[in-house]
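Input record, target 12 of the design panel.
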């Protein structure tokens, strides 16, 4: 009897360990999905399927939002996850959107125009490195500099908005200038709301109104909504600086890494 009980306990322990390993693997799978979407966006952009490439970048954003939340929920955060997530983000939110906007609009422009795409990749890499260094030492309510997914969203949503339009010389020049501006915003010191401590349940009426307004805009013009969303967020940092001023938030106690 004792032997049978001991064997049963061992089996239960083995099943629990396998289940735990499967759970801990989930955040890494989401990050892998993020990385795959970034590569897939590159392939689609090379085939001149620009709208689909932009959608692949949007799916990568969803994967990026989920992997960190899932990792913290199941308490599977690790330094490996932080590094893996940053490497995936470089492909999905730096290289892929830069190549997309280059192929879509700036390939035939003079060298100073498409050099903004290279600057976007460089600034995105610097932004990710700075984020990893500052994790646990800054106010969690804000991001310092425009997050790379938001910067990628500006470029991707621009492609979705203009994919059926005839691009004039002035439009191409505006896209080139915007690429420079977004790149510099990523390495700026402007503070952007992180929404990590947003309590939706505290203001249900306002939340419902925002959701309804967003749905109305989506159904009215689904191509315009993501552009307004990402551009509005990108502009919110400089606007907040003008309104609030340059304030330095006190450092917080160390927190867990962003991802698994």
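The sequence produced for target 12 reads:
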């Amino acid at each position: 009897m004792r032997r049978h009980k001991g064997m049963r306990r061992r089996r239960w322990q083995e099943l629990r360990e396998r289940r735990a390993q499967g759970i801990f693997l989930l955040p890494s799978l989401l990050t892998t999905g993020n990385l795959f979407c970034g590569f897939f966006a590159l392939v689609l952009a090379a085939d001149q399927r620009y709208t689909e490439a932009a959608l692949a970048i949007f799916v990568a954003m969803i994967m990026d939002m989920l992997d960190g939340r899932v990792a913290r929920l199941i308490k599977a955060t690790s330094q490996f996850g932080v590094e893996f997530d940053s490497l995936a983000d470089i492909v999905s939110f730096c290289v892929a959107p830069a190549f997309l906007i280059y192929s879509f609009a700036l390939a035939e422009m003079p060298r100073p125009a498409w050099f903004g795409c290279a600057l976007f990749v460089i600034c995105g890499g610097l932004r990710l490195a700075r984020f990893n260094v500052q994790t646990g030492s800054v106010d969690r309510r804000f991001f310092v500099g425009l997050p790379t997914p938001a910067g990628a969203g500006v470029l991707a949503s621009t492609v979705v908005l203009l994919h059926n339009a005839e691009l004039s010389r002035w439009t191409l020049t505006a896209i080139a200038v915007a690429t420079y501006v977004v790149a510099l915003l990523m390495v700026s010191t402007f503070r952007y709301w992180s929404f990590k401590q947003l309590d939706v349940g505290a203001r249900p009426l306002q939340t419902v109104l925002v959701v309804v307004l967003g749905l109305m805009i989506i159904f009215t013009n689904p191509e315009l909504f993501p552009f307004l969303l990402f551009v509005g967020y990108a502009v919110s940092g400089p606007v907040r600086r003008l309104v609030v001023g340059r304030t330095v938030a006190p450092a917080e106690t160390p927190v867990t890494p962003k991802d698994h």
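Strands lie at 142-144, 191-193.
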